[in-house]
Amino acid sequence: MTTTAVTPDVAHNARPYLYGGEEAAVASALSAGQYNHGALTDEFEQRVAGLLGVPDVVAVASGTAAIHIGLLAAGVGPWHEVLVPSFTFCATVQAILATGAQPRFVEVNPGTGCVEPAGILAALTPRTRAVLPVLYGGRAVDLTPARPALDEEGVTVVEDAAQAFGSWQGDRRVGATGVVTCFSFGPIKNLTCGLGGAIVPRTPLEADTCRRLRGLGIVESAAHRAEATTYTVDGFGMRVQMSPLNAAIGLVQLQHFAEAETRRRELWRAYAAALDGANGVALVDADVPHTVPALCAIRVLNNRRDRIFRKLRQDRVGVGVHYPPNHLQPAFAAWHRPLPVTERLGQEIMTLPFHQHLTPADAEYVAGMIRQALAGANR
Ligand SMILES: Cc1ncc(COP(=O)(O)O)c(C=O)c1O
């Protein structure tokens, strides 16, 4: 039995982490008086592009908006189908519905929580216009083996990399692999802007389309508009820019991103070591040498997840469930199809407290509490 004292931080499944400097940066952005789109937003885009090693990035108000715009820019609309795992946050599916397209749910590998090339190819229909893999927990999804067939069918890969900022696919960062990539900079993500998101477009034309879609369909840049007597609206657009107030937070966080990479990997590895050999649970593999983990998930086997979950919550250990499958949600019932692997995963999955306030000692404490709860469930 572990004797490590509980820190209040293990009661949180996730929590924003500030490095210091964010409050001053927001105060300065407030005084500067540009709250819609401004120079700080442009600077944030450039710095994110620099970190990823890509020519351009388009910042938006949220990860959901990023996926919505990424899909629209890829030409997705009514009458199209988008292949998507059911095992994801509901935002992924809502972004598809926002385009007027329909989700077609696909299975994931229960060992990773991610879709696989073979499952994608098997689910293609003549109406498939895009594939939306979800980089669960930050793990890259490499669809290279399916790419020739997808290209031939005119199917675009738009990644939901909401949880994967900073992760690698081979020797390239996620976002630099040639597909449309969508990030979230929400409160508990690897890098937070408070709220925010970004799209990595494939071409300058696609970048332009994304910028118009985020800014009410207006063609001219904000800077250009300030000097002109009119402006041009040439298509549909939303008001989902990233405010300079949020960009200010992100710019400070970017300066410390190396710390996020180290601390998050360290915490994930501490959980893996502390749970090694525990009977009745299996770690969902995050491919941690390549991943900046956004969460640490385990499967609780033998129909004991709910009991273990309740016991841990009683003991003030902040476990969570990410995610209940979407094809079982009332809102998405029209697109239900049997997905036995995902359904089982939905009953087994449990995420552990995971954020940068925690230390490896906290992970050992949580692992000890899990072992105790498992032993109790055996009696
Ligand atoms: C997998 C996944 N997709 C999409 C989103 C949506 O991002 P946001 O909350 O920034 O809109 C999130 C985060 O909440 C997420 O975890």
Polypeptide structure, described:
38% of the residues lie in helices and 12% in strands. With 379 residues, it is α/β, with parallel strands linked by helices. The protein has two domains: 22-255, Aspartate Aminotransferase, domain 2 (3-Layer(aba) Sandwich); 257-378, Aspartate Aminotransferase, domain 1 (Alpha-Beta Complex), CATH 3.90.1150.10. A seven-stranded mixed sheet has the order 1-9-8-5-4-2-3, with helices on both faces. Strands 10-11-12 form a three-stranded antiparallel sheet. A two-stranded antiparallel ribbon has the order 6-7. The radius of gyration is 21 Å and the shape is globular. The two termini are 16 Å apart. Bound molecules: pyridoxal-5'-phosphate (PLP). Pyridoxal-5'-phosphate (PLP) binds at residues 62-64, 88-89, 91-92, 134, 160, 162-163, 184, 186, 197.
What can be said about this structure in brief?
By secondary structure, this protein is an alpha/beta fold. It is 38% helix and 12% strand. A seven-stranded mixed sheet has the order 1-9-8-5-4-2-3, sandwiched between helices. Strands 10-11-12 form a three-stranded antiparallel sheet.
Low-confidence segments? none
Structural class determined from secondary elements: alpha/beta
As a percent range, the share of strand residues is 5-15%
Give me the strand/helix succession.
HHEHEHEHEHEEEEEHHHHEEHHEH
Give the % helix.
Answer: 25-40%
Count all strands and give the number: 12
Ligands, deduplicated: pyridoxal-5'-phosphate
Q: State the CATH superfamily name of the largest domain.
A: Type I PLP-dependent aspartate aminotransferase-like (Major domain)
- CATH architecture grouping of the largest domain: 3-Layer(aba) Sandwich
Q: What name does the CATH topology of the largest domain carry?
A: Aspartate Aminotransferase, domain 2
